[in-house]
Amino acid sequence: MLMTLIQVALGGAIGASCRYLSGVAASRILGFGFPYGTLFVNVVGSFLMGVLVVTLAKKGGNHLAPFLMVGMLGGFTTFSSFSLDAVFLFERGEVGLAAFYVIVSVVVSIAALMAGLFLTRGIFA
What we know:
By secondary structure, the chain is an all-alpha fold. The protein is built from five helices and no strands. Helix 4 packs antiparallel against helix 5 (about 95-125). The longest helix has 30 residues, at about 95-125. The protein is globular and about 55 Å long. It starts with a helix and ends with a helix.
């Protein structure tokens, strides 16, 4: 368990660093008017999650999943895990549950962010 935690932590540090650098590069290249960096890491991270799920399963590399999938991709973008969960629900035939998960995750997460902003701004006002 401790080694798995170390793998996740190391992968997370690498993934988060890559996310930061991607955001800086996107802003410098494309400007600051749109969250290009976030869009980039969400799309690339989701693509890589799909590649890794199949590759690790086919090549017997599931022992690398904590480092690569949870750690690196989790640090790079949690959207990749969200995407994988939604697709697995869909593939299991639970289309309604997949749609519910996607809608609730997006709407409730944005609402929670807005609540956090509202409450914290009130404290510091």
